[in-house]
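SEQUENCE-TO-STRUCTURE ENTRY
===========================
Question of interest: how does this chain fold, as expressed in C-alpha cells?
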Amino acid sequence: MPKLTLKTPTDQIFMIGPAYASRLKKLNIFTAENLLHHYPVRYLDRSLVTKISKVQEGASVTVRGQVVSAANLVTPRGKKIQKVKLEDDSGTIEATWFNQPFIPQSLKPGMAVALSGPVDRFGAKLTLKSPEYELIKPPPRSPLIHTGRLVPVYPETTGVSSKWLRSRIKFLLDNLLPTPDFLPEKITVKNRLTGLTTALKNIHFPKSSQELESAQNRLKFDELFLLQLEALITKKRWQEKKLAHSLSIDQEKVLSLIARLPFKLTLAQNRTLKEILSDLEKDKPANRLLAGDVGSGKTVVAAAAIYVSFLNGFKSVLLAPTEILANQHFDTLKTVFAHTPVKLVLVTSASKTSPQALRDSDLLIGTHALLFKKLNFVKLGLVVIDEQHRFGVKQRSQLLLNSKVTPHLLTMTATPIPRTVALTFYSDLDLSLLDEMPPGRMPVKTWVVPPQKRPAAYRWIDGQITAGKAQAFVVCPLIEESSKEKLSDIKNVTAEYNQLSQVFSRLRLGLLHGRLKSLEKKRVIADFSQGKTDILVTTPVIEVGLDIPGATIMLVEDADRFGLAQLHQLRGRVGRGQKPSYCLLFTSAKNPTTIKRLKYLESVDSGLKLAEIDLKLRGPGQLYGVKQHGHLELKLASLSDTKLILKTLRAAETVAKKLPSALRTKLKSRKITTVAPN
C-alpha cells in the first residue's frame, strides 16, 4: 500500500477499495483530502451515558456493558426479530431489532459493547429499540465514534452509510493529521481561529458544542477566504496585463448618440455609463460587470461603450449565449447605430459572412461560433459578454487568447446579484448595478395556480387572446438541470404543445426550442412577433433575449422547478408594452414551503430582493442555475453571512499581493483554474 497523503485516491485508502471508491464519486469524493472535507450535515446527541438501572422510558441514552445473550427469534405472526441482553454492574436490559439477522453474529456473548437508542416499554420491561451498536475495544482503545458522544451524520449515497463514513474518516484523522495550516498565523490570531488540524478533528468528532462551533467558524472562514483570494488574484493578474489601446472619450459625440435615442436614459443608466466610460479612459484593462433586471436597459449602456471604441478606431465584439439573444442584440444595435458609420456583422452558426465583411466590420455580434472564426483581433478595443455565467471559463478565455492585445472587458447579466454574492463570486470584477427600470414599465400581475384552478386559467387565457388583448408564452422546464436541451426536453415541450393545441383549438400555436434549425427558429419568432401566432410554447430558451411587446401573458409549467430569479427573468419577457401583463405560475407541488417560496413572486417585483430570498432558501448553486464544472461549493459558509464575508475579504486583501508559500500551494491544489477574468 503506497504512503497515505492528502492526494491519495480513495481506492488506495485502507479498507475502501474500487467498489466503495466508485460510490464515493457520487458524493464528489475522489481523494483522501476530499473525504476529510466531507463535513457532517447534522449531529446526533448520544452523549448521555447512563447506568442500565437508571434508564427511563422515552429517553434516548447510551449504555455500556457486556453481552449476556444474543438470538434470532420469530414471533407468532412470523416476524423476525433479534434480541440481545446487555448487563453492567447495575443491571440488565434487552435490545430489540427487526429483520437484522446478522446482529447475533456481530454481538456475541462476552463482548463489550455500547448501545445508543430510544428506551421503549415492551410489556413490563424496558428495552432499547433498534439501537446503534459499537464494540468497545480493550485498552489502549480508540474513543467511541458511533455512540456515547455527539455523532456526525453525513451526506450519504446508495451503499455508503454515515456509520461507514465515520470509520473511514476516523482512520484518516488518525493517520493524516497533523496537516500543514495554509492560513498565515497573523490571520488566525487576528480572527481568533482554531488551527486547521484541530478544526478537522472537531468538525467530525467534537467533544462538546463549543468545540463544534469553533471548528465550523474556522472552516467557514476558509471557504470564503479562498474564494475571495482567488478572485483578487485573478483581478490583480488582469490589471497587470498591458492594455494595448487606451481610449479617449469624445463626450460630444457620445451625447449626440444618446440624444438620438427615442427615450431618455434613467439615472441608473447615466450612472453606470459614467462608471464604464471612466474605466475606458484608464491605462489598465477594464473588467466590469453590468447587472440589471430584464428590460433595465443594459444593451443601450453597452452600445455607448462600443461607440467609444469605434470612435477611437477599434473593433468591438459582443458575445451572446444563444442565437436568439445574438439576433436580438443585432436588431437593437442596428437601430441604435442607424445614424452612425458603425458597421455591424452578425456571426452565428447559421450566418454566412464573407471574410472581407468580417475584416471590415466595426462590431461583431455573435454566439460561441465567434470563438471558432479565424479573426484578426489586432484592433480589438472592447469585448462585451452577455449573460456571462452561461459561458464556461474556457469559452470566455478563448476569445481573449485569440486577441494579440488585451481589450477592455464588459460583462452583462440579468441575473440579480445580491451584495454578498458580488463580494465573493464576483469580487474579481468591478460591479455596476442598474437598479432602476425605465418609466412606463407596468408591474406584471403574478399568480400561483394550483391544479384545481388550471381549467379556469385556461378559459381566462382563451378569453384574453380571443378578445384581441393578448399573446401568451407557455414555458416548460428542462427535465434535468442542464445547460443544454436534451431529446427528452424536446419530447416534453412537444407533448405540451400537442396537448395545448387541443385545449386552445380556436387559437394559433407555435413551438420553439433550441434544437430547431436556425431558419425555423427565425420563422417561429417572426410569426409570434408579427401576431401570426397567439401562443408560443417553448423551453426556457426564451429566458434571455426575446423581446415581443405584444406578449402580455407568461404561463410557466412546473414553476417549482425554477429558482425565483429565473422565474423573475421569464416574467420579464412580458409587460414590455403599455398593456397590463400577467404571469401564471402553474405548480402541482403540495409542500407548503415550496408554495410559500413561489408566492413571493406575487408581492415582490424586485429581482434583487427575490434573489436574496432565494439565496437564503436554496443557496448559490440553485440561484445561478447549473453548477459550472470545477466550481467549488460552499459546504458550511453562507452567502447570507455579510459579517463573515467582509471579514474574509479584508483578510484576503492582506495577502493577495504577496502570497505566502503555504497559501500558494493550497491554491494550486484547488480545482478552480482561472485562465481569464470571469
